């Protein structure tokens, strides 16, 4: 086995921490420049994880199978989520325009709190699946709420957005993709 001469360590020993520090600083600067809302998802182009969960406020269940042959949004939210309040008017508007069905996934929440929250802010959802334990959120790779997925007629995830939706993201990214997916289904 080839050994590094002791003279190398004596000569450059003082500079090694500086080199390591510089390398870490460069990695930090690169990381800070990235937008956390654009973290690539390994689920894009793959089947949406299946679920069958209680539908909030009634005695039925909601499942991914209920949405087969439709383009739909899955919006993961919670009553304790401040950012969910920010995006909610956009979801209400989108629901009123009847462009796409929106299924809510109520994440790690208390049912009574979720029902009260929807009564206060409006309910844009066709169904609200209750993910009290967060297991389905884990299946979808949720970092936090809100997160939104666009799922096509074949049940494939076509888009993921981390964080609250904005008008720009809705108009520039999601709505054109919905239109394209709906054209493909005919």
Helix content: 40-55%
Give the beta-strand count. Answer: 7
Our measurement of the CA-to-CA distance between the termini, rounded to an integer number of angstroms, reads 66 Å
Strand order of the largest sheet: 5-4-3-6-7
Taking the sheet with the most strands, its summary is: 5 strands, mixed
User: What does the average pLDDT come to?
Assistant: 87
Query: How large is the count of helical segments?
Result: 6
Shape: globular
Low-confidence sequence ranges:
none
Order of helices and strands: HHEEEHEHEHEEH
Strand content: 15-25%
Rg from alpha-carbon coordinates? 22 Å
Structural class: alpha/beta
What does this structure look like?
It is a single chain. The protein has 186 residues and is α/β, with parallel strands linked by helices. It has helices spanning 6-12, 16-32, 82-97, 111-121, 135-139, 167-185; strands at 52-54, 61-63, 72-77, 101-107, 127-131, 147-151, 157-162. The strands form 2 sheets. A 5-stranded mixed β-sheet has the order 5-4-3-6-7. The chain is globular. It starts with 5 loop residues before the first helix and ends with a helix. The model has no long low-confidence stretch (mean pLDDT 87).
Write the layout of secondary structure elements.
Elements: H1 6-12, H2 16-32, E1 52-54, E2 61-63, E3 72-77, H3 82-97, E4 101-107, H4 111-121, E5 127-131, H5 135-139, E6 147-151, E7 157-162, H6 167-185
Short note summarizing the structure:
This protein has 186 residues and is of the alpha/beta class.
